[in-house]
Amino acid sequence: MLRFLTAGESHGPCLTAVIEGLPAGLPIDLAVVNGDLARRQQGYGRGGRMRIEKDEAEVLSGLRFGRTLGSPLTLAVRNRDWANWQDRMSPTGPAAGEAVTAPRPGHADLAGVQKYGHDDIRNILERASARETAARVAVGAVARQLLSAIGVTVAAHVVAVGGVTAARRPYSAPEIGQLAAASPLFCADKTAETAMIEAVDAAKTRGDTLGGVFEVVASGLPPGVGSHVQWDRRLDAALAAALVSIPAIKGVEIGEGFANAALPGSQAHDEIFFEPGRGYYRRTNRAGGVEGGISTGEDLVVRAVMKPIPTLMAPLASVDIATREATRANTERSDVCAVPAAAVVGEAAVAIVIAGAVLEKFGGDHLGDLFAAVEHYRRRLDGGPR
């Protein structure tokens, strides 16, 4: 079983991630991990924090001479801004700095202090911050390298920002990777991208923020990953949970998703065909590569909705938790639009889920065992069922 935990605060010394369940012998290229961390910091509409941090992963355990040992792999991403926050975020010693008492609507601020009994919102916002997703992106970069070893590619792109929607096309993951890399908004549709940038600029002028939608595609995933037998083994359930766990994500759809509500069944499903040498296939992919909680062998297609970031330069109305008097919400450094960054995080989340489901199905304490199991399974598929 593949599992991971992250730890760390936004302005603490570092973020860490511990990954357990990776097979031994997997080559890990830190340049790939650091490349994904850099992509998370890019994207039109990002804020001032991205000019401070230059995220790079440091390996603390589980890797020797570039290959996994089978023991927990620990990654750390240092926070450069820690030097300016050592007094206010010190783990020991007397309290320092002014308490944050004006909760931001749309953030974990108020619900968090109510739940944990704090009188300083910083005790909540530091961990609730989307800064935590840097650790998840590092985990996802490792998962993508595992998937790449068995021929699976995962990539994400932005398909909507502030109400501007890109043309819907069935891109493969390798195509998305190339097109998104050439776009400041990680958008494959150049016409839509221009309008999106204009919308971001207008929101910045107003002191406002914008949300949007990103799409993640996984190509090369064989049929049979995931299971129908229990709710928590369904691949689509795990994907939805992983994506909604990303800060500011408020909705997920797989394949045609919500559009199916307006369609008759004859237009909502993917007819099945067979050709010798090709096997079973579908001419459409409305299901997004998942049926009954199990991968179909078609491209896996998932989209997620990101709400506008709740930290506004023109703050919304709030109530001071110390005085109970009306005030304006606290203002931290913020992005105008973080949908491109969320797409990178979503790509990582999908890669982690798929990698876990692949290891659950095929197992293997060593990478060679995994290769052998995958190859045996593919040979079995070539011969049946009839």
From TrEMBL:
Statement: the UniProt record of this protein carries the keyword Transferase: no
Could you tell me which CDD domains the record lists for this protein?
Chorismate_synthase (cd07304)
Keywords on record = Amino-acid biosynthesis, Aromatic amino acid biosynthesis, FAD, Flavoprotein, FMN, Lyase, NADP
User: What GO terms are given for molecular function?
Assistant: chorismate synthase activity
Query: According to its UniProt record, which cofactors does this protein need?
Result: FMNH2
Please name one Pfam family that this protein belongs to: Chorismate_synt
Positions binding NADP(+) in this chain are: 40, 46
- Name its pathway: Metabolic intermediate biosynthesis; chorismate biosynthesis; chorismate from D-erythrose 4-phosphate and phosphoenolpyruvate: step 7/7
Highest taxon in the source lineage = Bacteria
User: Could you tell me what reaction this enzyme catalyses?
Assistant: 5-O-(1-carboxyvinyl)-3-phosphoshikimate = chorismate + phosphate
EC number(s) recorded for this UniProt protein? 4.2.3.5
Give the note describing cofactor binding and stoichiometry: Reduced FMN (FMNH(2)).
Positions with a binding annotation for FMN: 127-129, 292, 307-311, 333
Question: What is its biological role?
Answer: This reaction introduces a second double bond into the aromatic ring system.
Describe the subunit structure.
Answer: Homotetramer.
**Entry similarity comment:** Belongs to the chorismate synthase family.
List the protein's name: Chorismate synthase
Q: Which organism is it from?
A: Anaeroselena agilis
The encoding gene is aroC
